[in-house]
Specification:
alpha+beta; 9-stranded mixed sheet; 7-stranded antiparallel sheet; Znf_RING/FYVE/PHD; methylation
Length: 1315
């Protein structure tokens, strides 16, 4: 209760209403005349004119009850109570028929007014029908999907494909497809949106049926309805999966009543009249003050009225509430009477005046009504408030939303009411997160956006990194004027939205108040309990979309929560100098392992929590002084084994009727399954047998450790904040953490929840909302194309001009609509303030990861979502908030990039992280990071030790881990330095599909010479680094190219069949992926040869010759497959199949050429000679393949110049925009060198006996013998084999040593051992 209330020493029991004569003596405080005047002033009848004081019957507290009975008497009460009305059949209380009037699978709310579709196309009707007269009911649209709303007769039969409107005598309106249905369908009405109200009207006197949308008539939909004997119409709806609505048959006041039409359920007229009269009496009390000294009544403003303990006033209020209290428990009366009164208070006065009146009203409610009466009243009041806020139309000044939020704030400022609502209503019964949502208007005309933003403008191609953008300086004067006018309109809209957002933040500040602990727990700690359960419902319900809080609500809730959180964080800092500012916020690592915060079943970096507690129990004891009880660990293990068994209590409580056909199942479910009635849904309707599954394990699991661990519901303030003997959430502080707390522990838990919220659905919603901007870009491009066609169209073609002009008008109108909607999205989702919130979360996650990393092995306890949020929030800032706001403008941008780079570089190969998904996310994030110049420079700024460690991890053998992303990172570091490798878009695609040159995924090459230098140093460092890495690269290249060739053979065979057939798109995608992998692996080999040529050419190294021979073998294989005349590769490229656009000669041939040029045209002569000899010695070498690179079918004669290339052939000379003249000269030099060398080798070659050839490759003479088995091969084959296997080719014996074959007969000297 408010502070004013707490100072009162009286209670309701002191003012029981009796007729005892002794009670009248209490009125002696004021004389009888003043009392008579006061009571007549309060309880005067509005139907009668005021009479003279001499003719009035004297009033006192003895005859006041009799006077009140006369005042509240209603003439037609007996007729109303019977509930029988001509033209209507069925119960007087109209609800949905959950016993038999439905088809399919449906979820119905407690009040039987809200419904959610849970099958393909479920149908349900009401319990009451009409056969005569004019009737109306309303439907609150909660989701804008596929639904058909209307009327049907009892004889209509529906199924999962046919619903209301698909049969005779059923009629429906479908605002999703904007059509009306009665067996056939035609266009009707306009599109509805979530938050709209559909009024369904039926006139059985004239036989017509019509609909209204938000009070605006859509016109007559159907005429000549069937009437007569046996024809009665039920309200009915058919809705698809996950769609939800709420009906109002009259149990609440209709939002848009229609003159002449009657709601299906009669309002409680008698109670309504009584409640309105009693409200008038109550308002009179608030506007009149007794002056016993002067003996007169003083008129006062209700905002100045104060309850001062006068017995006369108290007894008067007691008489009023004795009759008013039972009425205030009824839904209709709360909304029609109390809500209307409070709305009037808020709308008429200033916020301070409204707050004063609302506080007085709530004080009086709690004083004069029983607790259960006040609680029911407050529950209905908040439900009504939330419904009104959610379904109010968007007006230009957002006035309706502002009034409802101000009233909500006024109610929540009352301490006792706030604590009750927090404990029992806001998160348990209501979708209270709706209060923090600002719905987006799909119809900009009705929202007044045309007046706010009269001039529209749309940005050109987004200026994000990697995208081409039109510079502002290229704007015309007209475009500049339009853009500035549009920006001014956007600012006007933003200022109005900020008013609503500030009110929403005030609500959360009230809920996070921790100073109101007088006589109970503070609001913040109640909020924490409910907030944690809210997160648990959304985290554990990922598989069931209907279990989740709508992501658009979650986005708004997150931003308001951050604002309120930072306010209290900095407020605490102001009074505690040792604390940290919110700009320095992070979550201490002990929160993740001390069991004080429940993370449900969310994955930890090191795996399952139970596993971590067993394997790291010694580290917990030594670093954090936390002991794990072995008995409890054993119990936890057994619990894991038995988790599939159903708990006995749960089985005992399962109702038998749960298995009945269409039975009502009590299903404990979160409030997100509630329809717009805002009550918790718990009826599960099905026309098929339904079985109810129990959860696999309880939702609130207390961790079994030797510390005080409690579930969220059991915790107290001391358990969270701690005391002198207990550090609360910070129990188990590691030595790396400071002793001084950052802030209040409760705020740390709120911050942890905010990070979890972003991970659950906020990031996905931010990406989804970018679709509006993409739509603007697409329509703007279409409009520009249309305008270009108009300019080029001959004036004599009037027919074409007319069509183009029509298209231009359509695109312009659509762009006007989308640009105004985009302004709304930017103001509510992508504003500068929202960007700063996401940036703050990113920095919080970075600090949290950095502090957790310092704890060593305990880092494994951190939930995975902290790394996920760090990665995703950076992606959102970079990709979603442009081009209006740039990440580069954020404070500390460079430092943040560097810190994130350090985390990615260190943890992408961190052995403490075991989850496959999070490891892949880290790898992909690093791969994306090195694509952009700014982030790549950040990687180069991290400490050298971390850079070297990162490159060392990248050079680990590919067989031991997923290698495609690693290889792609290395390629990005090289791109821009390789032979012909300076392109952004593949050249052949620019020729065939030039319109795709501005694809958003393309980035300009930005190689890193610094990281290349680290790579070179590491490859030279040890004898095993380079061989193991290159051997794995060559193995993967052999696999990828072989798979690619095999797949294009299958594709070619399918294309040549006479019968019509289709190649699987997935097969095409895999084929293109293998090709891309082959090219990227070749580029990594080119980089390696360029940086460290000695690895291949310095034969003093034991593995150099073998690596060079393997490389030559693979290069010849690729060249022969790609360059052969009219070969398989040529035919598949010519087909130009969708999905194989990247497959072409250029990318793979320039990669091979780059390697050959580095081997044969660079470096010392000795190295070139070795490379030439190995290349020519390979039996697959064909000089014509080298000639193919320059478009020549045959090598030129010695001493003659190269002829001009054939234009029909592939030639590197055709790509002068991508290959420099110097590079072409090197290719010509290489061709001349190989032509000369091959001629010399052919002349000097001697015939070799087949018995002396290696039985493996048949290309080289036998030169090695294996011990102990004695089998023989050439050195190249056995050395390559021993890189991956220790068994003999032939007999599978383990090879101990390899000896030189020439020396084997005489000296038997061991030349190398099988390592």
């Amino acid at each position: 209760m408010a502070s004013k209330e707490s100072s009162m020493s009286f209670s309701r029991k002191s003012y029981r209403l009796t007729s005892d004569a002794e009670k009248s003596r209490v009125t002696g405080i004021v004389h009888e005349k003043l009392l008579n005047d006061y009571l007549h002033r309060i309880f005067s009848s509005p139907e009668h004119a005021p009479t003279a004081a001499t003719s009035r019957k004297p009033l006192n507290f003895q005859n006041l009850p009799e006077h009140l009975d006369q005042l509240l008497h209603v003439e037609d009460e007996d007729e109303e109570s019977q509930g029988q009305v001509e033209g209507r059949l069925g119960p007087s209380t109209v609800v949905l028929d959950h016993t038999g009037g439905f088809e399919g699978l449906l979820l119905v709310d407690d009040d039987l007014l809200g419904v959610i579709g849970h099958s393909n196309f479920g149908t349900i009707r009401s319990t009451t029908c009409v056969y005569k007269g004019k009737w109306v009911y309303e439907v609150l649209i909660s989701s804008q999907g596929l639904m058909q709303i209307g009327w049907c007769t009892i004889n209509c039969r529906f199924n999962q494909e046919e619903g209301v409107g698909d049969t005779h005598n059923s009629y429906a309106y479908d605002g999703n497809r904007v059509r009306k249905w009665n067996v056939t369908t035609t266009n009707y009405g306009k599109a509805w949106a979530a938050g709209d109200i559909v009024s369904c009207l039926i006139d059985l006197d004239d036989g017509t049926l019509s609909f209204c949308l938000n009070g605006v008539s859509l016109g007559t939909a159907f005429e000549n309805l069937s009437r007569g004997l046996g024809m009665a119409y039920f309200p009915a709806i058919s809705l698809s999966f996950k769609e939800s609505v709420a009906f109002n048959f009259g149990s609440r006041p209709l939002r848009y009543p229609v003159a002449g039409y009657r709601p299906l359920q009669d309002p409680p007229h008698a109670d309504l009249v009584r409640a309105q009269k009693l409200l008038g009496c109550f308002r009179a009390v608030l506007s009149v003050e007794l002056d016993p000294v002067e003996g007169r009544l003083v008129e006062k403003d209700s905002s100045e009225w104060q309850l001062q303990g006068q017995p006369t006033v108290l007894l008067t209020l007691a008489h009023i509430f004795h009759r008013f209290a039972p009425l205030l428990r009824k839904v209709y009366l709360v909304e029609a009477v109390l809500m209307s009164f409070l709305r009037g208070v808020v709308e008429a006065g200033s916020p301070a005046q409204a707050q004063s009146v609302v506080r007085q009203v709530l004080d009086l409610l709690w004083l004069f009504m029983e607790d259960y009466e006040v609680q029911d009243c407050l529950k209905q009041l908040m439900m009504s408030l939330l419904r009104l806020y959610r379904f109010s139309p968007i007006v230009p000044d957002l006035g309706l939303q502002i009034h409802y939020l101000r009233l909500t704030i006024a109610i929540l400022r009352h301490e006792k009411s706030r604590k009750f609502l927090l404990s029992n209503v806001l998160f348990d019964v209501l979708r209270s997160v709706v209060f923090f949502y600002i719905k987006s208007p799909l119809r900009v005309e009705e929202a007044g956006l045309q007046e706010l933003i009269p001039t529209t403008w749309w940005p050109h191609r987004s200026g994000r990194e990697g995208k081409d953008s039109k510079d502002v300086k290229d704007e015309t004067a007209e475009e500049r004027v339009r853009r500035r006018a549009y920006e001014r309109g956007c600012q006007r809209l933003k200022k109005r939205i900020e008013v609503v957002e500030e009110l929403q933040v005030q609500i959360l500040k009230l809920l996070l108040n921790n100073k109101d602990d007088n006589g109970g727990e503070a609001s913040r700690y109640i909020f924490l309990t409910k907030f944690r359960k809210f997160l648990q419902e959304n985290a554990s319900g990922r598989g069931n979309m209907s279990m989740l809080c709508p992501p658009e609500y979650m986005v708004c809730f997150l931003h308001r929560l951050i604002s309120a959180l930072r306010y209290y964080w900095d407020e605490y800092k102001a009074s505690n100098p040792h604390a940290a500012f919110s700009e320095e916020a992070y979550i201490p690592p002990q929160v993740f392992y001390n069991g004080k915060v429940d993370y449900f079943d969310l994955q930890r970096l090191g795996g399952l929590l139970s596993h971590l507690r067993k394997t790291l129990k010694d580290d917990l004891a030594s670093k954090a002084n936390i002991l794990i009880d072995p008995l409890e660990l054993q119990a936890a293990t057994m619990d894991d084994l038995d988790e599939d068994e159903e708990p006995a209590p749960a089985a005992a409580q399962r109702p038998m009727q749960a298995l009945a056909m269409g039975g009502v199942l009590p299903l404990p479910r979160p409030s997100w399954l509630s329809s717009p009635t805002l009550g918790r849904a718990n009826r599960f309707l099905s026309t098929a047998a339904v079985s109810l599954m129990t959860p696999r394990r309880p939702l609130s699991t207390s961790e079994k450790v030797k510390v005080r661990t409690l579930s969220a519901e059991q915790r107290t303030r001391e358990d969270i904040e701690g005391s002198h003997w207990n550090e609360g959430l910070l129990l188990g502080r590691p030595p790396e953490e400071p002793e001084q707390p950052l802030t209040e522990n409760s705020l740390l838990e709120v911050l942890d929840g905010a990070v979890m919220m972003y991970n659950l659905s906020v990031h996905q919603q931010l990406g989804k909302m970018v679709g509006v901007s993409d739509d603007v870009n697409e329509y703007a491009m279409a409009l520009r194309d249309t305008e270009d066609k108009l300019r080029r169209c001959p004036k004599r073609r009037n027919d074409i001009l007319a069509e183009l002009t029509k298209s231009q008008k359509v695109f312009s109108e659509k762009l006007d609509h989308l640009s105004r909607r985009l302004a709304w999205v930017h103001a509510t989702v992508y504003s500068q303030e929202k960007m700063l919130d996401i940036y703050w979360l990113l920095r919080v996650c970075l600090r949290t990861v950095e502090h957790g990393d310092r704890t060593g092995s305990l880092f494994a306890f951190m939930p995975e979502f902290y790394l996920s949020v760090a990665i995703n929030s950076y992606s959102a800032l970079k990709n979603y908030f442009g081009p209006v706001h740039s990440m580069e403008e954020l404070p500390g941008y460079e430092e943040t990039l560097t810190r994130l780079a350090a985390i990615l570089a260190k943890h992408f190969a961190d052995t403490r992280i075991v989850g496959t998904d999070i490891r892949d996310s880290l790898m992909q994030a690093l791969a994306s990071y090195v694509c952009y110049p700014h982030s790549l420079r950040a990687v180069e700024r991290i400490p050298e030790e971390q850079r070297v460690a990162m490159v060392r991890s990248l050079l680990a053998p590919y067989e031991q881990r997923p290698w495609a992303q690693t290889n792609w990172i290395l390629v990005r570091l090289w791109r821009g330095c390789g032979f012909g490798y300076r392109y952004t878009r593949l050249p052949h695609l620019l020729k065939t599909k030039p319109e795709d040159a501005n694809l958003p995924s393309l980035q300009k090459p930005c190689p890193s010479t610094l990281l290349q230098q680290h790579m070179a140093e590491l490859l030279r460092e040890g004898p095993d680094v380079a061989p193991s890495f290159l051997n794995s690269v060559l193995n993967q290249l052999n696999w990828a190219f072989s798979e690619f060739i095999g797949m294009i053979q299958e594709i070619q065979q399918a294309a040549e069949r006479l019968e019509r057939n289709f190649v699987d798109s997935r097969q095409l995608k895999v084929c293109a992926t293998c090709f891309d992998l082959s090219v990227s692996l070749l580029r990594v080999l080119e980089m390696t040869i360029t940086l460290v040529p000695d690895i291949f050419l310095d034969w003093a190294r034991p593995t150099s010759e073998m690596l060079l021979r393997r490389l030559a073998q693979l290069l010849n294989q690729v060249l022969n497959r790609v360059t052969a005349e009219r070969n398989l590769f040529d035919r598949v490229v010519t087909l130009r199949l969708p999905g194989l656009e990247s497959v072409d000669h250029y990318p793979i041939l320039v990669a091979v050429t780059g390697i050959l040029v580095r081997l044969l045209a660079h470096g010392p002569a000795s190295g070139r000679e070795r490379a030439t000899s190995v290349l020519l010695a390979d039996p697959c070498f064909q000089l014509s393949s080298i000639c193919y690179l320059l478009g020549q079918p045959e090598p030129p004669a010695p001493g003659t110049a190269l002829p001009a290339p054939d234009r029909k052939r592939f030639s590197l000379q055709s790509y002068t925009d991508y290959i420099s003249a110097e590079e072409l000269a090197q290719v010509e030099q290489m061709l001349a060198h190989l032509t000369s060398a091959s001629a010399q080798a052919a002349a000097a070659s001697l015939p070799t006996s087949e018995e002396d050839l290696c039985p493996i490759c048949y290309a080289h003479p036998i030169s090695a013998v294996f011990q102990p088995c004695g089998h023989k091969s050439c050195k190249a084959c056995i050395n390559q084999h021993l890189m991956n296997n220790k068994d003999c080719f032939f007999c599978k014996a383990t090879i101990v040593s390899v000896e030189d074959w020439e020396k084997a007969a005489s000296a038997s000297t061991t030349t190398s051992s099988a390592a």
